[in-house]
Amino acid sequence: MSPWEKAGAIAILLGCAASSLRAQEMTVELDPKATTITFTLEATLHSVHGSFALNRGTIHFNPATGSAGGLVVVDLASGETGNQGRNHKMHKDVLESERYPEATFAPTKISGAFSGQGESKVQMDGVFKLQGTEHAMSVAVLVKVSGHRLTGQVQLSIPYVEWGLKNPSTLFLHVGHTVAVEIDAAGELTGQ
């Protein structure tokens, strides 16, 4: 084989490898209407439960390389606890949702064995942005794929006081320094 033939064969192999890696790129478009975000904040004598709405979300990832990108946007102004006074205090004093109406998560890496169909457990690393401040975050995600439909379940704990948000405790009511968040996301998977 001549040097030109060898160079041509190498170029073809590299092109096939690059094409194969590009073919592995997948995108999930999250469906805000099919996604629920709930939270629990422990307090004296009871727990506070509430919810937020997903504004939008797109996640790009390559299971072969672990690279990820995109943005998930939560509508903080939609926060609801079932109590008007508590909602007002949460939005005005804690979240400052008039000034910071959104929280975002930008994935940077996915690790674990992702299955194109059925159930997978993956780890997603990224940057969570709350009140203009970025925080590195790593979450475990239980993923289920059926056809082009993907669902994902995430449970995480947000140390909101440590992150600089106000603790809404009063003289007689004390609340925890972390809030437990559960996300049941659903969307369309493309690029399989």
Considering the chains and any ligands shown, give keywords for the structure.
2 helices; alpha+beta; elongated; 192 residues; 9-stranded antiparallel beta sheet; Lipocalin; 17% helix
Summarize the helices and strands and which ones pair or pack.
Layout: H1 3-23, E1 26-30, E2 36-43, E3 46-61, E4 68-80, H2 84-95, E5 102-111, E6 118-130, E7 133-146, E8 149-158, E9 179-190
Antiparallel strand pairs: 1-3, 1-9, 2-3, 2-9, 3-4, 4-5, 5-6, 6-7, 7-8, 8-9
Q: Can you describe this structure in just a few lines?
A:
The chain has helices spanning about 5-25, 85-95, and strands at about 25-30, 35-45, 45-60, 70-80, 100-110, 120-130, 135-145, 150-160, 180-190. The chain has about 190 residues and is α+β, with helices and mostly antiparallel strands.
Name of the top-level CATH class? Mainly Beta
Give the N-to-C terminal Cα separation.
Answer: 37 Å
Largest sheet at a glance?
9 strands, antiparallel
Q: Could you list the spans in which at least 5 consecutive residues all have pLDDT below 50?
A: 4-11, 13-23
Helix run count? 2
Named CATH architecture:
Beta Barrel
Shape: elongated
Structural domain count: 1
Q: From N to C, what is the helix and strand string? A: HEEEEHEEEEE
Structural class category: alpha+beta
Measured by DSSP, the beta-strand proportion falls in over 45%
Q: Supply the CATH superfamily name.
A: Lipid/polyisoprenoid-binding, YceI-like
CATH topology name, in short, is Lipocalin
Query: How many β-strand stretches?
Result: 9
